[in-house]
Amino acid sequence: MRSPDGGQTWQPLVALIDLASCDFAYPFVVPHATDPNRVFQSFACYGGGSGNAGRAGESRDRGQSWADFAPSSQSTDVCFQSKCVALALVWAGTLSPSTFFLSADNWLGDGAGYTATFLRSDDDGASWFQASSFAPGAANQSPAFGGDPADPNRLYSGLGLADSPTGVKTSADGGVTWSELARQDIGKVNDLAVGIDSKDLYASDQAGSGDGQ
Fold first, then answer.
1. 212 and 114 part of one domain
2. Statement to judge: residues 15 and 119 lie in one domain
3. 21 and 64 share one domain
4. What is the overall mean pLDDT for the chain?
């Protein structure tokens, strides 16, 4: 939904996936940081009539109409659309305005299940490539995903690794490699946000909210 008057009234918007047909879903809405007409939807739908589906969509008219944010015919080598369930979208910021990152669950097929994958686009979503992926059972993807506005390649994630299932992970190379960030005993991280001056990292975990300065 969209409110054009600060929340006084609300207008329904078209969704990319029929959420009523999902057993459970993670819908996200991400406004563009510099263009008020652009907004993004990222949906993860599991089970139900829609099966397992993931879409990342873009609107250039404030949510009145939508298009896939990556071509649905793009090679599934990068797992977009037909093999990935999109969880969260991050814009790299004004220092790299054409770069976007997507965290996703990569469907490996019956019996293999999902594994965590990170995708990257450097041409405003026209094409995507796989920044990193993990072996089956080696990682659980998280909807908690954030980027540092002062460093286009610095990312943060609630990614759960087999030997480190909780806490915050970070990447300094645009999602190619990931490592533990400080203490990992804060529980499973559900959401992340980076302050606009890059000094504060906020994490919402199972126990509440924490501020990692």
1. no
2. yes
3. yes
4. 78
Q: What pLDDT does 83 receive?
A: 65
Weakly modelled stretches of the chain, pLDDT under 70: 15-19, 21, 23-27, 44-54, 70-83, 108-113, 206-213
Q: How far apart are CA 166 and CA 72, in angstroms?
A: 33
The residue out of 64, 94, 124 marking a domain boundary is 124
Q: How far is CA 51 from the centre of its chain?
A: 20
**Reported pTM:** 0.80
1 located within any domain:
no
Distances from the Cα of 87 to the Cα of 32, 103, 122, 144, 159, angstroms: 17, 6, 19, 9, 12
CATH number of residue 208's parent domain: 2.40.10
Q: Which amino acid is at 61?
A: D
- Strands (E) across the chain are located at 24-31, 39-46, 53-59, 67-68, 84-91, 100-107, 114-121, 129-133, 139-140, 145-148, 151-157, 160-161, 169-171, 179-180, 189-194, 201-205, 208-212
pLDDT the model gives residue 153: 92
Q: Which string of b and e fits 185-198 if b means at least 16 CB within 10 Å?
A: ebbebebbebeeee
Domain that holds residue 100: 11-124
The total of structural domains in the chain comes to 2
The answer to whether residue 129 sits within a structural domain is no
C-alpha–C-alpha distance, residues 82 and 175, integer Å: 22
